[in-house]
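Case study B.
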Amino acid sequence: MADRWFEDFVVGERWTSPPREVTAEDLAAFTRVSGDDHPLHAGPDAILQGPFGVAVAMGLLQGLGLHGEAVLGLLDTHWAYRRPVRVGDLLTLEVTIVRARRTSAGDRGVVTRAMALTNQDGETVQDGTTAALIAARGPGPDPDGRAFGTVGWAEALTEKADLADEVASWDGTVGLRCGDDEVHLRVYRGRVIEVARRSPRGATFTLGADAATWLELVEAPDNPFMRLAMAGRFTVTGDGYEYLRLTSALHRLADAAREIA
Amino acid sequence: MRADYLPLGGSLAFVEQHGEPDAPPVLCLHTAGQSGVQWRHVAPALAARGYRVVVPDLPGHGRSEPAPGGPVTDLGAYADWCLALIDRLGLARPGVVGCSIGGKIALDVAVRASDRLAAVVAMAADAHTGGRPSVRGLRRELSDVAAPSRTDRTYLGTLAVVGRDVPRERAELIATMHRREDPAVSTSDLLGWATHDLRDALPGITCPAHLVVGDDDLWLDVARVRAAAASIPGARCTVLPGIGHYPMEEIADFDAVLDDWLAELGAVRA
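Model:
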């Protein structure tokens, strides 16, 4: 197989697997391996154990042929069980690359994949993220446009966004967070005077979301910032009053994020 | 068109009327914080189709004086006010059409006086919001000092609930005009919206009813609107694809759409 290196994974790339049917053999085999013989997992209406879905997802992922010898290991799996899986279900895996970050060693990077298993009715039955360590082909540098929550991304954002009017009278720090990645924009009288992982007195407020939400923000046909905020997809910590006060500045930042993505 | 300032409920009400006085009357109600200007394109066009179109500004909105007791937080008070307006103008068996709080007020008018109505069309309204938006948050918003960037949030918040099929220019005009609000009045309207519970009352509606919701309307859950319609004997329910919270402003030829709906309901026909 044509191997994909760290640099070949682009945030926003997506794949869908062919469907896989859940069989009575699956149920028997998984129950035998796990030793979990709770009555829920027996009989005609048996529900397969949650981790069965993770196992299927990993198999379907492998079947997509994305990962060859450059994969150095699986780092983590964060997973939610949304609906029961039963014998006869047809499961399909949808994979989206949501984060690609080179490690400090420089010769490898962590690629995080958002994965969702859907059933024959198009409902999401299980979803989550898994991260893998993948060897790099070269030394970088890597693009910043979709490195949400990093200093490089926020610097590109600052360069693109003209916030002079929106924050002309403002003195404070805007935090932007994607998952665990947070960056601070120190603002004084209409100018961003510093972009850093942490500002000395912390953020006035921090706007945060998961990577899938940031991806949706930059990929939607029109700037969906308010729609996502009203739907509770962004969370705000810190001074909520200042967050509201900067509504149009944040909308403008979202415009800039869409331009650099 | 004629426009009058009518004494009603203790203050002066601004009321537009379009069309012939003896044509079948239709009362058109606006959304929270807004005014009859939302019906500016629909009203004359609907009148040209043979209706007497009556467009009031609710108390405290547009060119109407404030309600004597201050901003209204009970949609039932608006429903009573609408019935008083129907009496004042001598409207015989009007159709009542409203959107958002106007839709819910229209439903409440039907709850109170179905026998006096030809039909009710409630857009972007359900029986009970289930506590959205939060009453606590709305009470906080009533304090001006806690409600920063109000006009930007109204503008961007309106754009966020206009449907995906609405051309950008039209969406921006809607959102820009929605900046013309008194925040104390719109927030009070929303308190009324969040607290008014018609679940037990809707089955008592006996006039023909039609509930309408856009599938891009973030404020409404289509399933809840369907459930509200299902609780009214014989009511219809329409989901508008690509449309958001303001069908009469978003749909270019809305007068034709509304004319069809009123005709389907049978009782009002020009």
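Chain B is about 40% helix and 15% strand. The remaining cases will be described in the next quarterly update.
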